[in-house]
Amino acid sequence: MDFKELASLIDINSHTGNKAGVDESGQMIAHWMQALGYRTDRHSRETIGDHLLFLSDKRPGRKLLLLGHLDTVFPKGEFEGFREDSQWIYGPGVCDMKGGIYLALSALRNIHRETGAIHNIDMLLVSDEETGSDDSKLLTSRIADQYDACLVLEAAGQNNEVVTARKGVGTVYLDLTGLAAHAGNHYQQGRNANLAAAHLLIALTELTDLDKGTTVNVGKISGGIGANTISPKAQMAVEFRFTCTRERDRVLSAIDQLISISPVDGVEIAMTGGLQRDVMESNPSQQALLEEIQDILGYALPVEHRGGVSDANTIASAGVPTLDGFGPFGDGDHTQNERACKISFNLRLEQMTRILRHFRGQE
Questions:
Q1: How does DSSP classify residue 179?
Q2: pLDDT at residue number 363
Q3: Percent helix / strand / coil, the chain, rounded to 5
Q4: Which end of the chain is more exposed for a tag (fewer CB within 10 A), N or C?
Q5: Cβ contacts of residue 329 below 8 Å, gap of 6+?
Q6: Do residues 218 and 315 share a domain?
C-alpha cells in the first residue's frame, strides 16, 4: 500500500481547535470522495471543523454507514509530520484516525475500479470526536435511522480485533457553596464546602464496582481560600464509566441522591454535565452483523471490548448494528509515539474491500 497520499493528509495539522486545518483535511478527503461519485453534505460550523457526510446513490437494499473523525489531539507545533520505516508509519492520526479514513477510501476506490459506481455506502466524518463529539453526536443520532449497519474506523486491536463493546462515559461537575468564617474566631459560624467535598469524594468513589466494570473517579477537586478560613466554595470534576445500561442508571441515580442532601448542613450543591456517551453493548443484531462479515471473509474475526469511548457509542445507542475497530492496528495514539502497522493496513484493506463489495451487492 502506498502511503504518499496519506502522508499529505497527516502533514496537515487537524487539532480539534484548529478549524482551518480540520477543514483543509476534510476538503482533501472530499476531493478524493467526489472522484468516486460521492456528493458532499457539508454541515458547517463556526468554531470547529465542518462535519462531512459523503452520500452515494441509493438503490433498493441495505444501507451501510462508515463512520470516522477528522480531528486529532495535538496543537500546532507539538507533534507534526509523517515518516515511515519498513514496518510502521508514524505521525498524528496514522491510527487515530486518518489512517482508518484513508483505508476506507482505498477500499472504496477498489470497488469503484471494479464496478464504476458505488451505491448504498455512505461515510460520515465528524470534526470533534477527540473532545467528546458534543456537537456532532446530535448529527450522528439524527441520521442513524437511515442505515442498517455501521462500521467505525477507529484502530484495530493488536491482533486485528474488531470492537464489539465500549464503556459508556459521563462527566459531572459539582459546585459546592458554603459560608466563609474566620477559623479561629468564628469556626462554628462557617459552613465548610471543603468538608462536604471530602465526604462526597469518598461516597462517589464507593460507587465503583470493578466486578461489573463500573468506575467512578473524582479526577479534580479544588476549594477554599486559606488555612485560617472556613472554605466557602469547592469544585469537583467527576467521571464515571460503565459497561451496561443497568450500571449507568444505578450510578446516575446514586449521584442524584448524594447531592440531594448535603453531607454538611448549610452547604449547597449544584451539578452540571451528565451523560457524555452511552454504552455500546453487544446485542443480537450486532452479532448477526459480525457473523455476516465472517461469512463474507470465510474466517472468524477476533473481537475485544474497550474501556475507551468513540462515536461507535453514539451510533450503536441509536439502534444501528455497529462494529468498531476497522482501521489498521496502531499504538501510541494520543502520544508523540503514535504509529500504525503496515501489514495491518494491507489486511484491513483486503477485508474492507470484500465487505464493501458485499454491501454494494456484488457478493
A1: B
A2: 43
A3: 35, 30, 35
A4: C
A5: 95, 155, 156, 157, 158, 159, 160, 340, 341, 344
A6: no
- Average pLDDT score over residue span 128-141: 96
196 in Cβ contact with 262 (< 8 Å): yes
Contact between 104 and 31 (Cβ < 8 Å): no
CA angle centred on 89, ends 166 and 314, rounded to 5°? 20
pTM (2 decimals)? 0.92
Same domain, 232 and 97: no
Write out the residue range of the structural domain in which residue 144 sits. Answer: 4-166+279-360
If asked whether residues 272 and 327 sit together in one domain, one would say no
The pLDDT of residue 257 is above 50? yes
Cell numbers standing for residue 122: 455512505
- Of the residues 277, 302, 332, which one is the last residue of a structural domain? 277
Q: Which of 65, 57, 55 is nearest to 148 (CA)?
A: 65
Q: Mind listing the pLDDT tens digit for each residue in 69-126?
A: 999 999 999 999 999 999 999 999 999 999 999 999 999 999 999 999 999 999 999 9
ω into 97 cis (within 30 of 0)? yes
Q: How confident is the model over 285-298, as a mean pLDDT?
A: 98
Strand 303-306 relative to strand 162-166: parallel, antiparallel, unpaired?
A: parallel
Provide mean pLDDT across the span 212-228.
97
Predicted pLDDT of residue 361: 77
Query: How many distinct structural domains can be found in the chain?
Result: 2
Nine cell digits for residue 327: 482501521
Q: Does residue 237 sit in the same domain as residue 316? A: no
* DSSP H or E stretch at residue 221: strand 215-223
Of 219, 252, 277, the one marking the end of a domain is 277
Q: Are residues 270 and 326 in the same domain?
A: no
Same domain, 145 and 23: yes
Q: In what order do the strands lie in the sheet with 233-242?
A: 215-223, 233-242, 168-177, 268-277
- CATH number assigned to the domain comprising residue 144: 3.40.630.10
The reply to whether 12 and 56 lie within a common domain is yes
Q: Is there a contact between 297 and 183 (Cβ–Cβ < 8 Å)?
A: no
What the block records as the C-alpha cell of 1 is 500500500
Q: CB of 264 within 8 A of CB of 203?
A: no
pLDDT for residue 164 is more than 70? yes
**Residues 330-341: pLDDT tens digits?**
999 999 999 999
